Amino acid sequence: MRRLLIWLVALAALLAAPAVGRAEEKVPARIVAIGDLHGDFGAWEKIAREAGLIDADGAWSAGDATLVQMGDITDRGPDSLKIIRHLQRLQEEAADAGGKVIVLLGNHEAMNVIGDHRYVHPGEYEAFRDRRSESRREATWKANKENLIAFYRQADPDLTDKEIKAKWIAETPLGMLAHRRAWMPEGELGRWAAGLPAAVQIGETLFAHGGLSEEFTREPIEAINERFRYALGPAPLTDRAILEDPLGPLWYRGNVMREPVAQPSTPTEGDEVASQSSEPRPGRAEELGLVLSRYGARRLVVAHTPSTIGIVSDLDGKLLRIDTGISAHYGGSASYLVIEGEAVRAFRREVDGSWSAQLLPKSSP
Question: Does residue 105 have a pLDDT over 90?
């Protein structure tokens, strides 16, 4: 019954609003795509300026171009909130200039919403610190003192109340409570994340953070996006399993590498999903060809799986991998992709600080 409800909600949304990138929409003359940023504002700013997206003051300067940021703004670096605020500002400025800024939903945004904080950088908590942070933390301790004491004594019955409070304070840095409140489904950033598409089509190009599996592309793009909007919603009994589905567009690596895929399970360390499947699945080329044909597309752009050697064109130009480990956490090269008509170019920042451009092979229709 719950699956039927999700489908009916998605169908209603599909009929009520046009899907992004339908054939009748004008394809922008210039599309810029940027991969995972993981809290590195400096890298984001360098790329945006080099790509002509922003001016010296950080304002939108790309006219009617379209920017697609591929998700995973959060975690691993300190400045995710700063990047989010900048992108939100650019969305308004781009719209005024006839352009567009699209931010995709990444698996790390979804993880923050569902309370998986394994990869949150201390600086991300610090970004939420304000003059009320200390009093807010003290009030939280007082309101939950008995439960917290009981919890800590399960591991060590000999801890005193004072020791437990000190331990909890150490594990609850200032800003953490506000960060977690903001990312809850009903919080400001939780609601922002729910509004992000999991997949987008612009002309003949598909974009998805992780990838697009055969199983997930048996319905229109907007129906897929509506399923994720539902899963990120604030209702307490919402089924959120799709957010961790290894075949879903947030986690899928099957377009990049062929490994067995199982039913949805909790992601493991390093964003990998341990999986096994008894059912045979199509090979990479066969699957991608099928996915592209369903939407009348020529190529799929993905992030999520880092390639520190730079942007990779694979499967005869039908698959473009643009997560190059941009953030300082990975130490990869800054990069961005530009699609202008038939020309697709990969840009990369070299060790000496200069930028190089590579014209990528054309994908066959």
Answer: yes
* Residue pair 324/308 in contact by the 8 Å Cβ criterion: yes
Say if 364 falls within a structural domain. no
Span 316-335, average pLDDT: 97
Q: What angle, rounded to 10 degrees, do the helices at 133-155 and 161-170 form?
A: 120
Do 311 and 324 meet the contact criterion of CB atoms below 8 Å apart? yes
Q: Tell me, what's the pLDDT at 363?
A: 80
Average pLDDT, the chain: 91
Q: Residues 256-274: what's their mean pLDDT?
A: 57
What are the phi and psi torsion angles at 53 (to 5°)? -85, -35
Q: pLDDT > 70: what percent of the chain? A: 87
365 part of a folded domain: no
Degrees to nearest 5, angle at CA 34 with 32 and 37: 155
Q: Which residue has the tokens 């390093």?
A: 270
Shared-domain flag, residues 70 and 140: no
Whole-model pTM: value is 0.89
Could you give the angle at the alpha carbon of 103 between the alpha carbons of 364 and 315, nearest 5°?
A: 20
CB-CB contact of 177 with 137 (8 Å): yes
Angle between helices 80-96 and 41-50 (to 10 degrees): 30
Q: How far apart are CA 190 and CA 192, in angstroms?
A: 5
Residues 263 and 206 occupy one common structural domain = yes
How many independent structural domains does the chain possess? 2
Nearest CA among 33, 45, 54 for reference residue 347: 33
Structural domain boundaries enclosing 139: 130-174
